[in-house]
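Side project, low priority. Logging it here so it doesn't get lost.
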Amino acid sequence: MTVTASYDLLIIGGGQQAAELLKQLPENIGKLAVIDSRSGFPPVTVEASRNLELGKTTLDLVEAAPIIDLRRTPDGNYLAKSNHDKYFQAPLVWVAAGATTLKLAHKMGYGLDYLVFPLKGYGFQVEDKQAEVRYFTFRLDEQKASSVLDFFRLLRLERRLLAVLHCLISSKLTRRAMLAGFGYRLPWLKDQLLKRQVQKLAGSEVSDDALEILGPLPLQRLLVDTKTNRVHEESFQLSASEGLSFYFPGSSLGSY
C-alpha cells in the first residue's frame, strides 16, 4: 500500500458543510484537501476555496473519489481509502459527507447509538405564504438511489431492532414523518395530505387556483440518538478521537 498524498487536514465531503468548515481552519494548516465523491464540486465549495489565504495554505480539491474506508495508523495519523484504491493521509480529519459520514463513523466504532433519518418533501405557496411538507424516505443519497436494505444496514437494525423502532415511534417528529412517508406514496392520499397542510397554513379552505406547488425539496438527513430518543435538528459535531470529527448538518423543518 502506497500513500497517494499526505496533508495536514483532510475534509471528506465537498458540499455546503465543507464550505462552512473551510471558513474555520486552524492557523497551522499548510496543506489540506477536500475530497468528494462527485465529479465537479458545488459552486459554494469552489467559492469558499477561493477565499482562503492561498499564500499560507495549499488546497487540493479531489473529485470523484468516494471514501470507502477510514482508519487510524500506528503513528497517530488517519488513512482514508477511496474506491479507486487511492490513500490519503493526515493527522486531522473532518468528515462531512452526508450519509457516508455515519457509515464511516460506524466502521470505526463511533456513533453506534446514532442513525440517519432521511426526509424528502415538497414546497408550496398559498398567496404570499410559503411552507413545506416533509416525509420519510428510504433514499439516503441525493445522487443515487438507495435500497431498503441500504437503509436497514445504516440503522443497524439487525443488532438493535427494538431500540431503533422504540426511538422512532417515541419521537413525535419521526413518527409523523414515517406516517407521512407511507401516505405520500399513494397519489390520492398524497393530495389529501397536501390540502390539509395548505389549510393549516391559510387557516381556511383554499381553492386549487390559489395553491402553487414550488417543487421537490432537497434531501435532508436528521441525526437521531437512539439512546436518548433525541432528534438533532441543529448541526451536530461528533468528536470521536484526537484529530477526528464527524459533522452532521442541521435541518430547517417544516410541518408534516
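Brief comment: The radius of gyration is 20 Å.
Revisit when time allows.
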